[in-house]
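Subject: Protein record for review, amino acid sequence with backbone structure tokens
Why sent: The fold of this protein is of interest and is recorded here as tokens.
Notation: Tokens come from a learned vocabulary of local backbone shapes, not from coordinates.
Attached in line: The record itself begins immediately under this heading.
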Amino acid sequence: MPWPGTGERSTRLLFELFPVALRDEAVGQAHRLFVEQQTELYRQVLAHGQDDGTFTLIDTPRALARSFVALEDGYAMDLLIGTVTAADIEARLFAHARTVTGNSALV
């Protein structure tokens, strides 16, 4: 399968490193830090949107942020095996964002 861009190669590498993270504490810690950084980025965006009235969140910013990271990871596997496109994933994530933020204008 051809890899159209750096993002797909990076995603594939992250998935290939996951078994190592299960066996090696240092790699596991690096993976946990990476997930925490992703989660924190989403949390900040969600909290800001909540604070300024753009979003009406259905859960805490932290809980929703972690869910977005999990969705990205799950959808990335679908991308790597070729059952969806990056555009499909983007559309699904935006649909989820509209649902959990109460903001139907998110595109």
